[in-house]
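step 4 of 6: structure.
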Amino acid sequence: MELDQSILLALSAMIGSVFGSMLGLGGGVFIVPLFTLWLGVDPKVAIGASAVCVVTNSVVGSKRHLDNGFVNFRLATILQSTTAAGAIIGALIALAVSANFLKGLLGIVIMYAAFTMIRGSKKGVESVPPDAPDPMNLMNAYEDGNEIVRYVPKRLDVGLATSGFAGVLSGMLGIGGGLVQVPVMNLIMGLPMRAAAGTSSFMVGMTSVATAAVFYASGKIDPAVTAPAMVGVLAGSSLGSMLTKRFKVSHLLGLFFVVMVGLGISMILSAFGKGI
Amino acid sequence: MSTQSAPKPERISIAPVISATLRIYRWAVYISFAFLGVGFALALLTDHEVEREIGTPVEMVRRALELHPSGYFGIGIGVMILAPIAMLINAAVILFRLGDRKYARFTALVALILSLSILVAFLKG
């Protein structure tokens, strides 16, 4: 195990985790490109390491969301049934296709994330009364300042289908899947943004367990890459939360947009054997 | 035709599930990073080369007993991967005890899917 390589891996994972934490995307979107483009790690090994990092990030970061009541536990378990199955399918696809295909696909997903982020589409959700119809017993509430925000998730069918798709993407690319799940939960299922982000952040840890298991079975979890990355994620997750409190993330969106588009283009070019 | 809705069943609080989840996740972080820490210390202090694969659970324990860093890294990574499954199994048991049978079954189903993926991985790995 080379010390300088381990430090670089931990540093890259930390940078990915800080960015992911500040943008609410999770670190996986940044970790795989940084590992493959900057450090020359095999893309499938990078995806395996990223899946373990997503689990770490979720296990460490869920405390804040659970403490504040942002996680809708019942909804998470329902949606997780299709997400977990999707992640297993996605991971099996990832092991069957070429590394360049995965690089190209990840490049497209990063560009999509960048444009979604800059567009900033989110819907305000009105609080419902305590006796609102709730056939699936999914009503949840949390405190926001002095008021209680209460909501009942809708369109569970759409949620289950998109969660399955998010699981496939997560399994293929080692990302959390929040990129797909958060907008769907907010815009279609009617969850307030905080509840959508909190529930998704809690779910991605479980999703990535399935991904990590498939990559482990294929010998693609490399301890020399994964262990330093986990340490980087642990540090980055805390640092990201601290920086989010200090800086207004909306002021940095332009910078993040440029970084993400740059990474996306680099991944797509790398898929065609061209580097920047 | 009556428009009166059926009386709403009493809602079961899942606060015990949340506190148990927080406890399991906290201990998973402590245990996992303790093993990783020992692994890093051994990697720095000994001349063992870190393996490029985690290996089977038996190999992890054997390497750990031989004070090989790969064994400690493998166990640390394994503990982290198993944390969400332990949380789900525990949550299913608590929900069942609280009488929330429907969500106990959903939680158990997800735990089963993830446990099977891990089991197959261990058997193949």
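step 5 of 6: annotate
 - Residues 16-124 of chain B form one domain.
 - Confidence is low (pLDDT under 50) at residues 1-9 of chain B.
step 6 of 6: archive
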